[in-house]
Design goal:
This is Hydroxyacid dehydrogenase. The protein is built from 13 helices and twelve strands. It is of the alpha/beta class and about 325 residues long.
Length: about 325
Amino acid sequence: MTKTVLLIEPTIRPNGVEYLTNHFNVVLVPNGSEETIIAYINKHQARAVIVRTEKITRNILESCPSLEVVGMHGVGLDNIDVPSATENGVVVLNAPSSNYTSVAEHAMMSILALSRSLNISDSKVRNNEWHYRESYFPMEVNGKTLLIVGMGRVGQDLAKKARAFNMNVLGFDPFVTESEMQLHGVVKIDDLNMCLPICDFISLHAPLTKNTYHLFSAKQFELMKDSAFVINLGRGSLINEQALYSALVTKKIAGAALDVLEQEPPNSDNPLFTLENVIFTPHFGGDTLEAKDRCSESITHEVGVVLNGKISRNVVNPQVLGNAKAYK
């Protein structure tokens, strides 16, 4: 009997849909509400569901006995209750190697855009304020110090790009050794707060955990140079937005580039929107066409691996393996 995989509109790239259609029965779910997902899984006795931003809650996992696999079309797992999946014998997969190049490129773009106040300069020219060039002088990134918080795949690739611009690169990540960082030309930092006063740019690429929640708040901004910039392509809550707003308004730091926010989508009255020294993008640093194609190919193939009773290289809850419904 052909196994059923659910996809949720708006869904993944055509290459992934084609692969699934050739090997499994594919059902499209019209929306990502909890009630709809439960209804479709149970109606079609679906063995797997692939999600993008939709939440897979404990209620879904406990209400759907046929479910064996949850595939995350991306890297972050904030929208999936992984502990509950493990308790219910459901394998969770992601696509960790699909978009790190795109995110690193976005971070490097942000560094360069902030160094030249690109968004402000664009606005001034459009408003017939050509004289802006006489009152503002941009900076080079050559020789400047970049601190990368989170030295996983993204951080490593960003370090490579930053070093090509002759930047001095520091890395803060308790889970990456000094020797591993040295391989990427990065100096390991053990005390985050101690190094903040020497950094010109700080780029955040850490996961959101209880230890990284509001990792950057009033204390950290107070330690930074007045000329320093912060970039966040990790998770919105790595930064305390109220503290960031205060630091920007008082010119305690020079600016920020934010691809992620504490609330997404944000409220239109978010005070950060009133500031011209912040560059916003809609959480799509890793959403290039190339990355989406790689992600779709990766997650669909790995879901197929698990549904065929084999162990995937991308299992994020390996403790489930002995109790996983898919491997019984």
